[in-house]
Amino acid sequence: MVEKLARLGHGEIEGLVLQALVRQLVAKGVLSPDDVRSLLFEAARRLDLVGGELTKKAAHTIVEEDLAPAFLGGE
């Protein structure tokens, strides 16, 4: 039987773990900052914030202003 994981911190723990994992992969050279930005851009394009997928420009802005700093820190 597969049990659901407890939602710690109202689900925030998953994001924090993902950010830490990405930072470690960058630190070890497994991913480059450009790889991370590319992955974030592909994910951001699929966000449905305005009733459909974001434009490339809107996704790029979200990546550069919000997502990349959260995942890459101060680089």
N→C terminal distance? 42 Å
Structural class by secondary-structure content? mainly alpha
Strand elements, count: 0
> Mind summarizing the main beta sheet?
none
- Run of helices and strands: HHH
Number of helices: 3
Strand content: under 5%
Mean pLDDT: 85
Helical content stands at 55-70%
Globally, the shape reads globular
Structural Rg: 14 Å
Which blocks of ≥5 consecutive residues have pLDDT under 50?
A: none
Polypeptide structure, described:
Helices cover 61% and strands 0% of the residues. It is mainly alpha-helical and 75 residues long. Helix 2 (33-45) packs across helix 3. The longest helix is centred in the last third of the chain and has 17 residues, at 56-72. The chain is built from 3 helices and no strands.
